[in-house]
């Protein structure tokens, strides 16, 4: 049923509807972002949507949602937190988010989009804590881009099996995120070693 709803909204409203849904709809409709993105990836593979344009529109919608959560937290975070604490489910989400913030600091924004429920709440808390927007954008936007790249690609390549993928989405995305993290660490380490070798070479030449 959710898959049919996503396809219907894409068909009826096009790119603008897709952007607005990723921006505002995530707060209203209980449809997982993974399902939306993978369905758009499937539609792109079927040439219903242009893959590059669809990807950009989705990313802009996600950035708008993250920035809105951050802004709300910065402007009216205190009264909303008091309201959220009244809900047992939201209280647990707050506790989980605070643990991530305490353990990983701003870096938690980079992988928070892989955790449903926390992905839009953590930016709210960082807005409330007055984290500088540039730092927030650096970590949150880059993490969302990695998540989107993985989810969109899965939908584009394996879209015919979306129902099965959604059942195991957490394991799949975490696994792919782990691979991406390993590759990123390998690249950074390699670059760092290259700089150290250049430095040693320059010192050997007396430069």
Number of helices: 9
Uncertain runs? none
Rough outline: globular
Q: Roughly how much helix do the residues carry, as a percent range? A: over 70%
What oligomeric state best describes the polypeptide chains here? single chain
The tally of strands reads 0
Range of strand content? under 5%
Order of helices and strands: HHHHHHHHH
Distance between the termini: 68 Å
Mean pLDDT across all amino acids: 79
Q: What Rg do the Cα atoms give?
A: 20 Å
**Helix/strand class:** mainly alpha
Give the biggest beta sheet.
none
Question: What do you see in this structure?
Answer:
The chain is mainly alpha-helical and 207 residues long. It has helices spanning 2-23, 33-45, 51-84, 88-104, 108-111, 121-128, 133-158, 162-167, 169-204. The longest helix is centred in the C-terminal third of the chain and has 36 residues, at 169-204. The protein starts with a helix and ends with a helix. The mean pLDDT is 79.
